[in-house]
């Protein structure tokens, strides 16, 4: 049975507040404040050793701390090494699909790469059913 | 080393569960982003009758002459949604329940569709194989476009069955992102269960 008392609960709520602020400011025309809040969120989580779910971390750029919103601060592309190397598009599906890489290009120029082709059913331990318990 | 019941008990007791607090956010969780479809079976049947079955029959005709405008393949769909203007209307069908569809791939889609007013329709489990077979008749030039990724973008054109469009509009709830409003929403703190010896 899970413990009811959670240490550092306030830190986690502070992280949540900073994330929401950063996202709301990203929705506005200027992103400078948003980046500041996202950077603060990162600093707080490392200082207090508080965990954030990978699904949240995926939405923040590691280099410029921008919240990744497709069409605004990033664009998403599915690429494949084989088709790039040969310049041909007629490669059979069976040989090439396992090399598919999802690339999230941030406006700062950094790229997040997820090799989804190797195992499309792959889920992290955090994302597995019954891995997270309610308080 | 003995293999008695006592020693085995000791081994088991030394391995205990550890609970680590973690911040959860329902608005970045892929499974919570897709809107609810009220009559999913009906919508899936209508999609098969009005679009997927016709793809097979129209295989020999040039795609520009088809009575509907559809796109598949992740890159194609993203490009079309990004270039969409405010006057055009589109529906994105997603097989998000099927195995073989990466959750990371789908995570960015609802937010993109929310910006461009595209209706996202999630399809029932088992729809991916039927959709892939039907979309195999699309003549895509790009390799990435050939692989459907469980995505189908359908544009609302005058030739499309009007009752199908009405059913889509009435049965699919609109996308909502409450965290984009300037109102603070408290997120749940959850416990991640792991074991430590």
Automatic annotation (TrEMBL), chain A:
Under which name does UniProt file this protein? Uncharacterized protein
Q: Tell me the keywords, alphabetical order.
A: Metal-binding, tRNA processing, Zinc
Question: Do you know which InterPro entries this protein is assigned to?
Answer: Rpr2/Snm1/Rpp21
Q: Would you identify the family this protein belongs to, as annotated?
A: Belongs to the eukaryotic/archaeal RNase P protein component 4 family.
Query: What's any GO biological process attached to this entry?
Result: intronic box C/D snoRNA processing
| Domain of life of the source | Eukaryota
Recorded source organism is Henningerozyma blattae (strain ATCC 34711 / CBS 6284 / DSM 70876 / NBRC 10599 / NRRL Y-10934 / UCD 77-7) (Yeast)
Q: Which Pfam families match?
A: Rpr2 (PF04032)
Cellular component GO terms, alphabetical: nucleolar ribonuclease P complex
Molecular-function annotations in GO: metal ion binding; ribonuclease P activity
UniProtKB/TrEMBL annotation, chain B:
InterPro entries, alphabetized: RNase_P_Pop3
Cite a single GO MF annotation.
Answer: ribonuclease MRP activity
Among the entry's GO cellular component annotations, what is one? cytosol
GO-annotated biological processes: intronic box C/D snoRNA processing; maturation of 5.8S rRNA; nuclear-transcribed mRNA catabolic process, RNase MRP-dependent; tRNA 5'-leader removal
Q: What is this protein called?
A: Uncharacterized protein
Identify the species of origin: Henningerozyma blattae (strain ATCC 34711 / CBS 6284 / DSM 70876 / NBRC 10599 / NRRL Y-10934 / UCD 77-7)
């Amino acid at each position: 049975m899970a413990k009811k008392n959670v240490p550092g609960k306030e830190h986690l709520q502070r992280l949540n507040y900073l994330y929401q602020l950063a996202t709301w400011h990203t929705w506005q025309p200027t992103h400078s404040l948003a980046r500041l809040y996202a950077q603060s969120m990162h600093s707080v989580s490392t200082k207090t050793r508080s965990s954030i779910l990978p699904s949240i971390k995926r939405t923040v750029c590691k280099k410029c701390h921008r919240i990744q919103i497709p069409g605004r601060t990033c664009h998403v592309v599915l690429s494949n090494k084989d088709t790039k190397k040969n310049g041909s598009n007629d490669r059979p599906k069976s040989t090439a699909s396992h090399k598919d890489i999802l690339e999230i290009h941030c406006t700062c120029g950094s790229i997040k790469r997820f090799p989804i082709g190797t195992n499309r059913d792959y889920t992290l331990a955090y994302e597995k059913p019954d891995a997270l318990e309610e308080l | 080393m003995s293999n008695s019941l006592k020693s085995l008990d000791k081994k088991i007791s030394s391995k205990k569960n550890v609970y680590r607090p973690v911040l959860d956010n329902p608005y970045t969780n892929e499974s919570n982003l897709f809107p609810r479809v009220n009559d999913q079976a009906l919508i899936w049947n209508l999609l098969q009758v009005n679009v997927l079955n016709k793809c097979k029959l129209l295989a020999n005709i040039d795609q520009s002459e088809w009575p509907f405008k559809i796109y598949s393949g992740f890159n194609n769909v993203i490009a079309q949604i990004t270039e969409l203007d405010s006057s055009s209307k589109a529906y994105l069908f997603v097989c998000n329940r099927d195995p073989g569809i990466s959750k990371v791939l789908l995570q960015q889609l609802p937010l993109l569709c929310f910006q461009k007013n595209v209706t996202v329709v999630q399809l029932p489990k088992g729809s991916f194989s039927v959709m892939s077979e039907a979309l195999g008749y699309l003549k895509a030039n790009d390799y990435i476009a050939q692989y459907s990724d469980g995505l189908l973008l359908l544009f609302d054109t005058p030739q499309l069955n009007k009752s199908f469009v009405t059913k889509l509009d009435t049965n699919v709830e609109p996308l909502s992102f409450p965290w984009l409003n300037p109102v603070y929403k408290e997120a749940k703190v959850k416990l991640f269960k792991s074991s430590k010896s």
